[in-house]
Amino acid sequence: MVLVPGYRFLPTKLNTSSWKLDKQIRRNLEDLIGRRKGGSVIIDEERKTDEASAHAAAKDLLGLMINAGVSGTRRTGPAPAEISVRDIVEECKTFFFAGKQTTSNLLTWTTVLLATHPEWQERARKEVLQVCGSRDIPSRDQLAKLKTLGMILNETLRLYPPAVATIRRAKTDVHLGSYNIPQGTELLIPIMALHHDTRLWGADAAQFNPGRFVEGVARAARHPMAFIPFGMGARMCIGQNLALTEARLTMALILQRFSFRPSPSYIHAPTVLMLLYPQYGAPILFRPLSSCGFHPGTVS
Ligand code: HEM
C-alpha cells in the first residue's frame, strides 16, 4: 500500500462520501443531545419536586454527560464542569464505534465456533437450560452462573480477538527485558499472535478448547498476561463488562431457542479489516428447537 501525504484532504469520491457520513452522524447525535438536553432543563427546573426523575435520566452514559454540569443532579459535592456538545458527540462516536462492531464480531465468531463444534454447543445449551430455563430471559444472576458459556467466550476471544493488536508509545526511555526503547517509540502489541503462541498455550494453541479456561483466565496459559483481548493496564477496554454481559445474554437466548450448524457455503477465511472478520461472511443454518427444518441465516 502506498500512503500519499495529504490524500485524506482531497475531494475524492470516497473522501466526499466519508465527510458526508461524518456530518450526518454528527447532526444525528446533536439532535439526540438537543432532545435530551430539553429534558434535562425541565428536570433541572423541577428538581425540587422531582429529583428522582433527574437521577433516572442521568443514569445512562449520555444522561450523565449531559447532566455533568447541571446542579442538583448530584447529592454531594460541587457539580463538575459542563461537557461541551462537541465533546459529548465525540464521546458518543467513540463508544458507538468501539463498542458495536467489536461485540457483534465476538458474537459472530462464537456462533461460528459453536456451529463447528456441536459437542460444545450441546454442553453450553445444557447449562443454559439448566440455569435459565427454556424460554425466560436470563437474569443478571443467572448469566453470572453460566461458567461453560464464559469459557467458550474466552476461548473465542483467544482464537479470534476482534482487535488483533493495540499500540503504546513510550513516554520516556525504558528498558524492556533486553531491549532499550527510546522515548516516543511506538510499540505494537500483537494480541492475536500472543493468543496463538504455542510457548504460552501449548501444542494445541490453534485448537478450540474452552476447557483450558476451566480454572480462570489467569491460569489458562503459562503466563497470566498471555490473554489480553481487551488490552491491559490503565487504558484497557472500558466496555469489557458490558461486552461480556451482552455476549452472554445473546448467546444464552440463541442457545435456548435454536440449534445451529454451518451452512455448506461457509468458507473459513478470517481476515483483518480494522477488526478480525470472516472474509466471506458467516452463513449459519438455524433450527428452532421446538420444530424441525433448518432456517438459513448469516451472522456478521
Ligand atoms: C468484544 C468486545 C470488545 C473488545 C474485544 C474490545 C477491545 C478493546 C481493546 C483491545 C482496546 C484497547 C485497549 C488497550 O490498548 O489496552 C479497547 C479500548 C476501548 N474500548 Fe473496547 N472492546 C470491546 C467492547 C467495547 C464496548 C462494548 C465498549 C463501550 C461501550 C468499548 C469501549 C472502548 C473504549 C472507550 C476504549 C478506549 C479506552 C481508553 O483508551 O481508555 N469497547 N477495546
Automatic annotation (TrEMBL):
One of its GO terms (cellular component) is membrane. InterPro entries: Cyt_P450 (IPR001128), Cyt_P450_CS (IPR017972), Cyt_P450_E_grp-I (IPR002401), Cyt_P450_sf (IPR036396), Cytochrome_P450_Monooxygen (IPR050665). Its cofactor is heme. Its main location: membrane. Heme binds at C237. Gene3D superfamilies: Cytochrome P450. It is found in: Membrane. Pfam families: p450 (PF00067). Keywords: Heme, Iron, Membrane, Metal-binding, Monooxygenase, Oxidoreductase, Transmembrane, Transmembrane helix. GO terms for biological process: brassinosteroid homeostasis; brassinosteroid metabolic process. The keyword Zinc-finger does not apply. It comes from the Eukaryota. The keyword Calcium does not apply. GO terms for molecular function: heme binding; iron ion binding; monooxygenase activity; oxidoreductase activity, acting on paired donors, with incorporation or reduction of molecular oxygen. Belongs to the cytochrome P450 family. This is Cytochrome P450. It comes from Vanilla planifolia (Vanilla). The lineage of its organism: Eukaryota, Viridiplantae, Streptophyta, Embryophyta, Tracheophyta.
